């Protein structure tokens, strides 16, 4: 029996960092790092640590067999340990006694899942950096590309595609602090009942055995490139929830981009087109179609992620005692799938944004199709205060609104009507309201608000992040954790 991902198109882009081989490698690295931590603390010979790492190659183990045997103990750590000890014994019989001592299965499983996500965060960060760079280029290139802003699905005011791209970029920038947290995920420690009794037993007769046990866990975390938690979290699952929420937020931010592309690439709008690739977007029944598959898959991911986070919250609410019963087991597939989907989505988004085609003419044509009424806010703000009440008592604002309603799609008619309505009035600077003034009021390029300022603020933030020496990959990823893979 296989699970090749037939029902998860595109998710294979995240498999290299989240598949069963990656899980096995994380579990093995956690066990090997524990032996190395003991060697650093003087509890094991250095040769044992070297042998432990040499035996920790996922390719040497049968994931399918381990999965079947995991049913016996309820988790894959138990059968893997048996195989690991056997293999290590072939390399260094003395090293076997240092494996797993003082740990419990949950310590290893939780730490391995954190390591799995930590490693997945590296391609995730690189690909988000690529997406951010592409969006920055789009924002700069199209800061003057006029487009209809849409609210509640309807044309609202003029905007620019550059500002829309800057908005997409800002959505990713808002995640930088959360994503940085994926580089500081914690090890899980506590032993059989969360008391560290097993670790303390490694320091018999030592007055400060408890402190030594904590320091041993700290060494372990350092070996893995993870952080040292403030407390035992066997049944306090905020580390898992925080991690999952970050991954889901990435999916949501990328899904927002996909939603806009899906809308604007509809043929009746035709403002955007996805990059083409051999075999992508094909239809089994309609060969003339070019479906926006990258955006479809991004939207799929954005719709899937919240349910996985909900599963993790449900599990966290069901934890009991000092070690959980069942709720813990539901976390593994949900967290792994979130990591897989987030990595795949970041790859899809990087490809989408790098190759996105922008049709400037269609954007302008669609904006012009709104007629001059799309500038009603500007016209009213400029002219209404200048007009005295009409004979029927209509205010200046009501008079302007009447003209806009009557000539909503007739630019020439509105120009004539507004010129006549405002004849004899003066702007605040003393300029007469003539045809030239009204013509300028009907130019959408003159009513873009703080377009350039808003784009500049996002681009400046992008530049600061990209040039920050304390981060890599433009603030979206961190340093590599040690691996024996």
From TrEMBL:
Q: Where is the composition biased (Polar residues)?
A: 467-485
Region (Disordered) location: 464-485
Q: What Pfam families does its record include?
A: Lyase_1
Asked whether the UniProt record includes Isomerase among its keywords, one would answer: yes
Which keywords, in A-to-Z order, does the entry hold?
Answer: Isomerase, Lyase
In which domain of life is the source organism classified? Bacteria
Q: Name one GO molecular function term.
A: isomerase activity
Keyword Metal-binding set for record: no
- Residue stretches making up the Fumarate lyase N-terminal domain: 30-298
Q: Which family does it belong to?
A: Belongs to the class-II fumarase/aspartase family.
Write the protein's name: 3-carboxy-cis,cis-muconate cycloisomerase
């Amino acid at each position: 029996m296989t699970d090749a991902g037939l029902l998860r198109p595109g998710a294979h882009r995240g498999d290299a960092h989240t598949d069963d081989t990656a899980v096995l490698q994380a579990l093995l690295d956690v066990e090997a790092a524990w032996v190395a931590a003991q060697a650093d603390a003087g509890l094991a010979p250095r040769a044992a640590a070297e042998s432990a790492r040499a035996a920790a190659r996922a390719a040497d183990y049968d994931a399918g067999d381990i999965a079947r045997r995991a049913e016996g103990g309820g988790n894959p750590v138990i059968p893997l340990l048996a195989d690991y000890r056997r293999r290590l014994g072939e390399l260094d019989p003395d090293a076997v006694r240092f494996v797993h001592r003082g740990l419990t299965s949950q310590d290893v499983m939780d730490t391995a899942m954190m390591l799995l996500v930590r490693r997945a965060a590296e391609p995730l960060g690189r690909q988000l950096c690529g997406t951010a760079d592409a969006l920055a280029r789009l924002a700069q290139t199209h800061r003057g590309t006029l487009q209809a802003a849409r609210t509640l699905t309807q044309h609202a005011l003029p905007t620019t595609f550059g500002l829309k791209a800057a908005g997409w970029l800002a959505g990713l920038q808002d995640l930088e602090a959360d994503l940085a947290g994926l580089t500081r995920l914690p090890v899980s420690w506590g032993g059989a009942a969360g008391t560290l009794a097993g670790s303390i037993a490694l320091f018999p007769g030592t007055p400060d055995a408890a402190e030594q046990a904590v320091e041993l866990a700290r060494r372990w975390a350092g070996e893995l490139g993870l952080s040292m938690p403030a407390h035992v979290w066997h049944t306090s699952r905020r580390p898992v929830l925080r991690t999952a929420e970050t991954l889901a937020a990435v999916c949501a931010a990328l899904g927002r981009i996909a939603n806009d592309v899906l809308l604007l690439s509809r043929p009746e709008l035709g403002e955007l087109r996805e990059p083409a690739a051999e075999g992508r977007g094909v239809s089994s029944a309609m060969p003339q179609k070019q479906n926006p598959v990258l955006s479809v898959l991004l939207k799929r991911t954005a719709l899937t992620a919240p349910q996985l986070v909900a599963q993790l919250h449900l599990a966290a609410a069901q934890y009991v005692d000092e070690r959980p019963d069942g709720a813990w087991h539901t976390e593994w597939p949900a967290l792994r799938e979130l990591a897989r989907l987030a990595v795949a989505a970041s790859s899809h988004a990087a490809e989408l944004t790098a190759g996105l085609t922008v049709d400037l003419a269609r954007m302008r044509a669609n904006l012009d199709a709104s007629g001059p009424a799309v500038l009603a806010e500007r016209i009213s703000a400029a002219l209404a205060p200048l007009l005295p009440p009409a004979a029927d008592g209509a205010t200046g604002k009501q008079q302007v609104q009447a003209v806009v309603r009557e000539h909503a799609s007739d630019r020439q008619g509105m120009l004539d009507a507004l010129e006549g309505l405002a004849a004899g009035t003066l702007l605040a600077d003393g300029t007469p309201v003539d045809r030239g003034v009204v013509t300028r009021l009907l130019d959408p390029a003159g009513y873009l608000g703080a377009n350039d300022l808003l784009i500049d603020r996002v681009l400046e933030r992008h530049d600061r992040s990209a040039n920050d020496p304390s981060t890599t990959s433009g603030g979206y990823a961190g340093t590599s954790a040690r691996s024996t893979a």
